[in-house]
Amino acid sequence: MAWGKAGSITLSSTSDTIDVSSLSDNKCNQMLIYGVSSGVANTSLRFNSDSGSNYAKRRSHNGLSDSTSTSQTSTNTDGFTSRENFDVVYMVNVSSEEKLIIRHTVDRETAGAGTAPARIEVVSKWANTSDTIDQITVVNTLAGDLTTDSNLTVLGSDITPSTFPTNVQVGSRAEITDTRKIYYRDDIDFKEVNGADAVNYRKDTWYEQLTGETP
Q1: Does 190 lie in the same domain as 132?
Q2: Does residue 157 have a pLDDT over 60?
Q3: What is the pLDDT of residues 85-134, one digit of tens each?
Q4: Please, which residues bridge with residue 208 across strands?
Q5: 173 with 98, same domain?
Q6: 210 DSSP β-pair partners
Q7: How far, rounded to the nearest angstrom, does the alpha carbon of residue 200 sit from its chain's CA centroid?
């Protein structure tokens, strides 16, 4: 399984949404969310612009007893006031199954080393059994705003690089773990095989090593 960045958006001005769309079909996704608030804001999640009552969650704050919310219009953690928090989110994304989400959040609380941060654990689901997720949106559902530098980064599990780095030495090797293919960096735009056209040509002077072939 190869992981890669599927999309990333950083706010340059105040907004209530951070949206990453046109996502490819990934069986698993990971999200990194950095929220900076003005007033009371939160970082709820919606998928494929679905704002219907199709979300449910179970939540614990600083290890206290669980609370549950069902038939919600998004899945969220907690509100935070004029400070920042950071989330790591894991999600399974199979079209015929409900989408399951695990979310870990650290909330800064009062600034300075004299106050410990808060932790929040959430498990949730999106009760959709017909679609894969091609859009992920962070939504502030409270009265304040998400401000500059708030960020949503989405990683996907089924990504094969469409381009390779160019600022590397000739002879460098790239291994793509999910396809088990090996590519080499050359100083020409093609590699001939027995004088014929290059069947393993790759752009940017990377070529695939075929079975039994030496670099």
Answers
A1: no
A2: yes
A3: 999 999 999 999 999 999 999 999 999 999 999 999 999 999 999 999 99
A4: 183
A5: no
A6: none
A7: 32
Q: Is residue 190 exposed (0-12), middle (13-18) or buried (19+ Cβ within 10 Å)?
A: middle
Contacts of 173 (CB under 8 A, 6+ apart): 182, 183, 184, 185, 215
Structure tokens at 56: 């449910």
Residues 70 and 108 in one domain: yes
Same domain membership, residue 150 and residue 167: no
AA identity, residue 138: V
CB atoms inside a 10 Å sphere around CB 83: 15
- Backbone CA torsion sign across 110, 111, 116, 120: positive
The closest of 45, 70, 43, 59 to 140, measured between CA atoms, is 43
**Residue range(s) defining the domain that contains residue 150:** 4-156
Residues 73 and 107 in one domain: yes
